[in-house]
Amino acid sequence: MSETYTFTFMKEVSSLLHAADGNPFPMCVQCGTCSGSCPVAAYMDYTPRQIIAMVNAGLKDQVMESNTFWYCASCYQCTVRCPQDISITELMYALQRYSIWKNRYKEGMIGPAFSEAFAKTIVRTGRTFEPILAPSYIFSFKMREFFQEIQNATELMLKGRLPILPPRIKRLDNFKRMIRRILPMGGAE
Ligand code: SF4
Ligand code: SF4
After folding, report:
1. From the CB of 36, is ligand 2 less than 6 Å away?
2. pLDDT over 60 (residue 189)
3. Of 14, 121, 134, 170, which shows the fewest CB atoms inside 10 Å?
4. Phi and psi at residue 81, in whole multiples of 5°?
5. What is the pLDDT of residue 19?
6. How confident is the model at residue 17 (pLDDT cuts 50, 70, 90)?
């Protein structure tokens, strides 16, 4: 008789980490070293330790509704200090990918639109281009900061420090072929 394989939330997220080093999340002993090392834990809805416990417990809705993985600063402090060698930073990236894939995230987060715009620019041109990324966050600024940003960008353009059109790398087709082997391209092309 064939065995039924249940694809739990934890297994779904783990499958997005297939290329990362580190032990499986169930090996977490809830010591809290990751949370104690995290410079932005105070601003997160749940600390890294809590997020690991919630992923292991299959609390998908609560995890998706949290700001934790969008606030991660990718400093890797948690990962290098974890006594169980768990790749917590990579988990944060995996949750971001999962969130965009399932189109589920906390209302008002800038991260999803910013990440999507960033990935599309890289895939299409091989380079980042700030003016394309700006709309994902600039409208959240107060009026004064908004105009300050516009003024800064204009000055940078006039001094030739910010290109008017997105720059493209050489051999872009080769780059796209390489990226296609690593990532599902979705609608990014
Ligand atoms: S440091 Fe590692 S073992 Fe400790 S709570 Fe964080 S993930 Fe779990
Ligand atoms: S990598 Fe992210 S979760 Fe880990 S300590 Fe740094 S900011 Fe916190």
Report:
1. no
2. no
3. 170
4. -100, -10
5. 67
6. confident
Residues 6+ apart with CB under 8 A from 54: 46, 62, 63
- Of these ranges, 4-18, 62-76, 120-134, 173-187, the one predicted with the greatest mean pLDDT is 62-76
Indicate which residue's Cα is closest to atom 4 of ligand 1.
31
Kindly state if the Cβ of 37 falls inside 6 Å of ligand 1: no
> Counting ligands in written order, which one lies closest to the CA of residue 79?
2
Task: For a ligand 1 pocket test, name from 17, 23, 27, 31 the mutation site with the most ligand atoms within 8 angstroms of its C-beta.
Answer: 31
Ligand 1 atom 2, closest CA: 82
Amino acid 185: pLDDT: 52
**What domains are there in the chain, each with its CATH number?**
9-101 (1.10.1060.10), 111-182 (no CATH)
Q: Is the pTM of this model over 0.90?
A: no
**Residue nearest (by alpha carbon) to ligand 2 atom 2:** 72
